[in-house]
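In response to the reviewer comment on reproducibility (Comment 2.3), we provide here a single inverse folding case reported in full, input and output, so that an independent group could reproduce the run without further information from us. The structure tokens appear first.
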């Protein structure tokens, strides 16, 4: 069964891996995008945008999880 802390841990892990993905895409831009044609550049830009959107969703999920835990701890 998934507990609340498991959910928070999963969100934090996903956020970390998304950040790593963004860093790798930035490295790809710096090393090879200058020599690449238009299509690879467009794919790199699209991948960066998608990862940035996913990271935004994960940050929102972590915030809502933290607020829910705070409400549970403080009680009614």
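Designed residues, in position order:
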């Amino acid at each position: 069964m998934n507990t609340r802390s498991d959910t928070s841990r999963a969100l934090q892990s996903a956020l970390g891996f998304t950040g790593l993905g963004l860093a790798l895409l930035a490295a790809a831009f710096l090393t090879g995008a200058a020599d690449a044609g238009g299509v690879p550049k467009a794919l790199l830009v699209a991948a960066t945008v998608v990862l940035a959107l996913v990271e935004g969703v994960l940050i929102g999920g972590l915030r809502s999880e933290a607020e829910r835990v705070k409400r549970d701890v403080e009680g009614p």
